[in-house]
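pasting for the record
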Amino acid sequence: CQRATGQDSTKFDERASQLTWPALLAKSINASYLCLASPGASNQTILRQILSQLDNLSPDDFVIIGWTYINRWDFFNDNKWVTIRPDSTDQLSKVYLKYMQSELWDKFETLKSMVLVSSLLRDRGIGNLITCQDTLISDSEFNTDLYITTLQKEVRNDVVWFNNTGFYDWAVGHNYPCGEENGHPLEEAHQAAFEYIRDNYDFTK
């Protein structure tokens, strides 16, 4: 979750990179910028971050949310939140991935989170730009029970895609460099993403 506030301010969050596309977007309109993103976070983590910040937001703020892959999941275990990802190797994760994880569950839970956040921001008059890394949330071929399609309709007009895909796949498809350690798209991709958003979305509305 990233937040750009104060349209006449140039204050930036010094802890965060100033070369990500949300930071570039904030800089382009002389807005202050606060980054709350966490590497490897699940959509449940993102939801908790947004809910924790909600009372600090006002209609003067603009929120950018990058929902991640749906197959990351959080459990509260040993008095802390633990994120399970497909490459997790601890015993708890192995049990969850083998016996409980399913694409339908992941899709349903992610869409519920997205609908909740969009509704809360809309009710408070807070401008936002929502992206989604995982195109499975809009898939209409598999796991399309009525309760899924109902949620999909609710968020259909809220999500900004990069040529109908997520940022990572879009960056790879355009052959932009990615980091060797974590595979994240590097500065060239973020510059191009900023230009894409700037040219295809009215983020000032």
